[in-house]
Amino acid sequence: EKTPCSSRMNSPFSDPTLERHFKGHRHTVTSVDFSCNMKQIATGSVDSCVMIWNMKPQMRAYRFDGHKEAVTCVQFSPSGHLVASTSRDKTIRLWVPSMKADSTVFRAHTATVRCVNFSGDGQTMLTSSDDKTIKLWTVHRQKFLFSFTQHMNWVRCAKFSPDDGLIVSCSDDKTIKLWDKKSRECVHTFTEHAGYASYVDFHPSGTCIAAASTDTSVKIWDIRTHKMLQHYPVHSGAVNSLSFHPGGNFLITASSDSTMKILDLVEGKLLYTLHGHQGAVTCVAFSRAGDYFSSGGSDEQVLVWKSNFDECIESSNGVKSQCKSAASSQSRPTVSILEQRLTLTEDKLKECLENQMEIGLHLQNRDEGRRWPNQHC
Amino acid sequence: MMSGGDLNPAAVPLPVEDRQGDGRWMSQHTRFVQECKDGEPEVLFVGDSMVQLMEQYEIWKEMFSPLHALNFGLAGDTTCNVLWRLQNGELENIRPKVVVLWVGTNNHDHTAEQVAGGIVAIAQLLTNRLPKAKIVVLGLLPRGEQPNPLREKNATVNRLLRSWLPRLGQALFLDVSNEFLHSDGSISSQDMFDYLHLTPTGYNTLAKPLSDLLLQILEETPEERRASLV
Fold first, then answer.
1. Which pLDDT score, from 0 to 100, does residue A91 have?
2. Domain boundaries in chain A?
């Protein structure tokens, strides 16, 4: 009974829905990541634990103790066999995500470690720290390879490009830096003015980067031309995290204003605002295939949502429903508000402005027509 | 030196009564307590309007924000008020490496000895709560356009602090008073627009030595330098 999507429709999707709601952390959740097989989700928290959740309702979650202070970041290795976690205790731990919770710990930095990122081949990993450095390590035996030391303040985040050839980092020194992994040189510096970026990542194509800023904006820069491509002033609080959909057309952002927003990068506009957390949303990540995303917040909750980007929904009058509650009824309501109504209004406004311009031009041409005989050429 | 037995009125924790009726003092204190939940400060500034005003000028953004500093200055506060605030939430959850303490010029009901005693009591509290932190106590600046009794009182407080603070191992004293006095003893409105509060120019005079000291303390981590990498 589904009617095929008309190509004229801006957003032929059904709204994202809340699928799972994980409770267990005892303090703010700081980081979330899906394994490649999509069965497990790893989270880190200020409660100093790493937790591994299973998407199957019957499977229980694991809690990994070990870090002495807040966990700042977690990431699955590309193969899914390891989970790396970083902490305020200045160490990195590599866990095997099973009941045994084996882990290796190594002291990587001389201050809080903020972020860890595996290279695509799983052989190396990057760490960034309040000690102002970014370090590259082998995963096997955790051998230190080298440091990138140009930042002048805490380095909040460092990520490999999709082909592992470049690294992007952001710091409280208000810069975002691009580094060439082979030459180890900083090839470009983007400077923020108002706040600083607390999270950066590469677009799946590798051609641009997105930065989440404390000044509430989300910015996209082209890494070849170094120009800013898009600027989304959509949040009313600091943007803490973001995640590109693997297809490259969408970006989800998490903010201290307690919402997440899904941005349509092709149209350059806001698509959805998601409410579900009480308090700041600190982290968000798409699954590797993009069909789910997960978020964590200062409310200690971990939410898992179904993206529903592939499905088209029919509607009788061509206008989408304004909002839809979570499909699976949870004790807390969540709302995805489709921004298309706003777009329709904007389109109408655009039409008015265009009409106005045409009228203006028409009048101008009429006046000029009268003056022409008198003009000097 | 005030002994434990004497009750120094300047060392008694007291909140400010809401006489004007708009609850502003409590609003500010509540906001500071909330900032302790969200922030990860390496430097904490606490005191009266001399501290509070600093955050309104460019100097704060340039020199102190990058150090991950929190500003818990509250205009009008005495040593009693700062003591109360620190005991009632403004030290929860945070572990700054340095605390900058600047208070005492509003203690009009107390003698110079009592004021100095109150400042030392705050420094002691900070050391108890944050054993690893350094406490930088700023000397009270001269006030009033020309020499006057309050200037003498503040100078006496500074003299006493200079001799009492060394007994607290983690406390340092920084006094830039002389920078503000002209040869004829007058203070310029270019430095203090109302002969009490500092202008941006006035803050620049203070900020440089203070910033140097903070950087020195923050970079001074001998234990960390020795840490092995792998």
1. 97
2. 5-314
A107 contacts B229? CB cut-off 8 A: yes
Give me the domain span that covers residue B207: 49-219
Tell me the nearest-neighbour CA distance from A369 into chain B, angstroms.
56
Q: How many Cβ atoms are within 10 Å of A229's Cβ, its own excluded?
A: 16
Mind telling me how many Å the CA of A220 is from chain B's nearest CA?
A: 24
Total domains, chain B: 1
Determine contact, residues A220/A233, Cβ cutoff 8 Å.
Answer: no
Chain B positions touching A143 (Cβ under 8 A) are 230
| Percent residues over pLDDT 70 in chain B | 93
Q: Which single residue is written with the structure tokens 């002048």?
A: A152
Which pLDDT value is given to residue A363?
73
The answer, for B228 touching chain A at a CB cutoff of 8 Å, is yes
Phi/psi for A297 (5° steps) reads -145, 180
Please give the span between the terminal C-alpha atoms of chain B, in angstroms, as a whole number: 50
Mean pLDDT of chain A: 85
Distance from CA of A177 to the nearest CA of B (A): 18
Residue A81: phi and psi, rounded to 5, are -80, -20
Task: Put the strands of the sheet holding A144-148 in their side by side order.
Answer: A113-118, A124-129, A134-138, A144-148
Q: What is the CATH number of the domain that holds B154?
A: 3.40.50.1110
Half-sphere exposure of A206 (CA within 13 A, CB side): 9
In terms of phi and psi (left: phi > 0; alpha: psi -120 to 50; beta: otherwise), the region of B36 is alpha
ipTM of this predicted structure: 0.82
Measured distance CA(A148)–CA(A128) in Å, rounded: 9
Q: Return the pLDDT at A350.
A: 66
Q: CA-to-CA distance for A72 and A39, rounded, in angstroms? A: 22
User: Mutating which of A68, A110, A282 best tests the B interface, going by the most B Cβ atoms within 10 A?
Assistant: A110
Residue B134 lies in a domain: yes
- Quick one: pLDDT band at residue B38, thresholds 50, 70, 90? confident
- Residue A209 is given by DSSP the state E
Residue B183 is a catalytic residue: no
Q: Which CATH class is domain A5-314?
A: mainly beta
B197 is catalytic: yes
- Cβ–Cβ below 8 Å for A111 and B224: yes
Q: Indicate whether B219 pLDDT > 70.
A: yes
Q: Is B204 part of a structural domain of the chain? A: yes
Q: Which amino acid is at B6?
A: D
Low-confidence ranges of chain A (pLDDT < 70): 1-13, 310-353, 367-377
B9 belongs to a structural domain: no
Catalytic site residue from B49, B77, B110, B191:
B49
Catalytic (active site) residue B194: yes
Q: Contacts of residue A108 in chain B, CB cutoff 8 Å? A: 229
- Summarize pLDDT for B59-73 with one digit per residue, the tens: 999 999 999 999 999
Residue B59 lies in a domain: yes
pLDDT on residue A8: 26
Q: Which residues contact A189 (CB under 8 A, 6 or more apart)?
A: A175, A176, A177, A178
